[in-house]
Amino acid sequence: MDKPGLTASLTESFEQLPQQLQAAARWVLDHPADVALLTTREQAKRAGLSPATLTRLAQRFGLKGYDELRAVHAAALRRRPEGFAGRAGELMQRHGDEGPSAIAQDMFAALAEHLKALREPQALARFEQAADLLSEAQTVFCFGLRSAFPAAFMLDYIRDLIGASSVLADGAGGRGIDALRRIGPGDALFAVSVAPYTRQTVQAAEIARERGAKVIALTDSALSPLAAIADVALLVRTETPSFFHTMTPAFAAVECLAALMTARKGKAALDAIARHEAALDAAGTFLTPRSTRRGHR
């Protein structure tokens, strides 16, 4: 049995399944990548079911056991096109076969699962460690290229807002890595990269480590080249039904770090935010109800 056939069978028979097997079927249908990659025991834990229930589901559909069901999904995952162009073609095919609503629903379901994973106890512990290192650093250098740049920019922007020393190594004119000439012991590098990893971001992490700075990595795998260098690695999932990886969990991770750093900084952060807001107000940076009314006269 191949994955499309299994998916069709699970969907068509869903209403006739006992309640526990419905829960197992829903897990399989909603988490195809997890089914392919995680152990049966870990899947049962995440689904809130027993491993035996997953086994019964597989046997209900003519498979010897859940490992065989996992193998079906793993084979489908290996057959998924590599690269953006191949996955874009897959997306177009699916759009024609299933329509836009199916893709949209799967996109948001994937994002919800990725964000939920950030609430796991191990993930939360890493966030606390990362926030401590970032808060203790004299200066934090923020480095991220291509799709990772907005996450690095966001951390730098918020650190400035709360009065924490920060440098955005933004690479304008190809000089981003030059900013690391000033990094040293007592500083930290916040480096962001997900597969396919950017060479210069890994180089930046290596430079920071050689100069005695702490390295906090925001990346997508414990096997990422950044994770191997980092003092703390925050892991975010990036796979979606689309051809392009998602950075939404990375943005959420930065927002969490910002909240933790602000709380740790206390009154000094509140004072810095007040000064920042006063300066923005004096410069007329944002529209206010009063300025909007003036504009309509």
Question: How would you describe the overall organization of this protein?
Answer:
This protein has 297 residues and is an alpha/beta fold. The chain has two domains: 1-79, Winged helix-like DNA-binding domain superfamily/Winged helix DNA-binding domain (Arc Repressor Mutant, subunit A, Orthogonal Bundle); 121-282, Glucose-6-phosphate isomerase like protein, domain 1 (Rossmann fold). The chain has helices at 3-13, 19-30, 32-37, 40-47, 51-60, 66-79, 83-98, 100-117, 121-136, 149-161, 199-210, 225-229, 248-265, 267-282, 289-296, and strands spanning 140-144, 166-168, 188-192, 214-219, 232-235. The radius of gyration is 23 Å and the shape is elongated. It starts with a helix and ends with a helix. The model is unreliable at 81-92 (pLDDT under 50).
Topology of this protein?
Blueprint: H1 3-13, H2 19-30, H3 32-37, H4 40-47, H5 51-60, H6 66-79, H7 83-98, H8 100-117, H9 121-136, E1 140-144, H10 149-161, E2 166-168, E3 188-192, H11 199-210, E4 214-219, H12 225-229, E5 232-235, H13 248-265, H14 267-282, H15 289-296
Parallel strand pairs: 1-2, 1-3, 3-4, 4-5
Runs in which pLDDT lies below 50 for 5 or more consecutive residues are 81-92
Could you say what the CATH architecture of the largest domain is? 3-Layer(aba) Sandwich
The coarse overall form would be elongated
Taking the sheet with the most strands, its summary is: 5 strands, parallel
Helix content: 55-70%
**Number of discrete helical segments:** 15
Question: What string, H for helix and E for strand, traces the elements in order?
Answer: HHHHHHHHHEHEEHEHEHHH
Q: Structural class given helices, strands, pairing? A: alpha/beta
- In percent, how much strand structure appears in the residues? 5-15%
Mean pLDDT: 83
GO molecular function: carbohydrate derivative binding; DNA binding; DNA-binding transcription factor activity
Keywords: DNA-binding, Transcription, Transcription regulation
Protein name: DNA-binding transcriptional regulator, MurR/RpiR family, contains HTH and SIS domains
GO biological process, one term: carbohydrate derivative metabolic process
